[in-house]
Amino acid sequence: MDRIFPFGLPWPTEFYTVLYVLTFALHQALMHYVLAGSLYVAWTMAFPGTGATARYEQPIATALRDWMPFALGAAITAGVAPLLFVQILYQREFYTANLLLSWRWMIVIPALIVAFYLLYLIKSQLMFHWPRLARASVATLAGLLFVFVGFCWTANHLLSMHAAGWPDMYVTGALPFAASTVVLRMLVWGGGAFASMATEVAWQIVPGTGIPKEAQTTSSDPRPLAAIAMGGFGVALVAAAAYMWQADANFRALAFGIVGGPYVVLALVGVALQVVLWYRAWRRAVLSRMALALITGGWVITLLSVSVVREIGRWSTLDVASLVARHQSAIEVGGLTIFLIFAVVNFAAIAACIWTVRHNTT
User: Please, which pLDDT band fits residue 361 given cuts at 50, 70 and 90?
Assistant: First the structure.
């Protein structure tokens, strides 16, 4: 590859790759809300603070508890499209990784089901009559289940890139890459999740965007969200630098060259824009709609750019010629029209649900 990714590849490959990145970024944004939100709520349950209003009753935690079950349902729905495209793009690699992960992959769905119902329990009034330890335990379990699901998908992604290690893993069951690789990728993803969650929750607690009017006075202070976002970026950037330092030389050459260099620059620009505006909001204790719109723009740019660099890392380890042949065969099967029709119907249904809930709670 000698052109900016994915240009220069045959058009079926470009087409599937672009659709995959776009749909994956949407799914990732929703899962960020759930992952970081569940961990934040668990922290507020375990450490409610000594103020007049407990942390779990303050606007950030209240908004998260109310919306996380819906966000998880939306994230799972939004995950259908990238799941379809990843099977088209990397069929052999994806399914081999599934089989080799064995029980760790098989319990992803049960883990999500349990976590889904725990989110409703966390949201209910029943739990607020329980002892503090019980509340914190339930919220922590939900958060850890989402971390586990994230680990499984991260391991699947990395395993799909290590075909040379498949025979040994089949025999021993041990992952064919260092534990630090998984940890660093999880820290990049987790840190970014908190930054994403802060932006998403900011739209919920800015006065006039849908929360109860009695909460708007306290929720107008953006400093807690600014601290969450900047802390998340700090973790993600340090972990990303460490991961790139130990990454394969071929991946680094592609990521920082013409293939991925523009996306790395865009990602850093997006992060810088967000950090500057969040720091400004933290210093002034004010977050305007314009500043939040600019933060959101930087967030979208970063999310898309990092998603592209993630795929460049996968392409750096695979046989491009064999992949291209598979994509050419897949494009001839058809079914795109049906996919687009149902995609529009699903997005319309989700939008209608959001409008209905917001309309009835303001």
Answer: low
pTM of the model: 0.86
Distance CA 126, CA 130 (A): 7
Q: Which of 107, 104, 111 is nearest to 72 (CA)?
A: 111
Q: Which amino acid is at 71?
A: A
Closest CA to 226 of 281, 268, 185: 281
pLDDT tens profile 151-167? 999 999 999 988 888 99
Question: What pLDDT does 75 receive?
Answer: 93
318 in Cβ contact with 251 (< 8 Å): no
Q: Which two tokens stand for residue 21?
A: 């990145």
Question: How many angstroms separate the Cα of 154 from the Cα of each of 190, 206, 227?
Answer: 12, 34, 27
φ, ψ for residue 141 (rounded to 5)?
-60, -45
Q: Is 107 helix (H, G, I), strand (E, B) or coil?
A: coil
Local confidence band at 235 (pLDDT 50, 70, 90 cut-offs):
very high
Could you write out the DSSP letters of every residue in 50-106? SSSS-GGGSHHHHHHHHHHHHHHHHHHHHTHHHHHHHHHHSHHHHHHHHHHHTHHHH
Helix (H, G, I), strand (E, B) or coil at 22: helix
| CA separation for the pair 204, 63 (Å, rounded) | 7
Look up tokens 């491009």; give the residue.
320
With contact defined as beta carbons under 8 Å apart, do 30 and 75 qualify? yes
Picking from 185, 201, 277, 270, the residue whose alpha carbon sits closest to that of residue 235 is 185
Cα gap 260→272, rounded to integer Å: 19
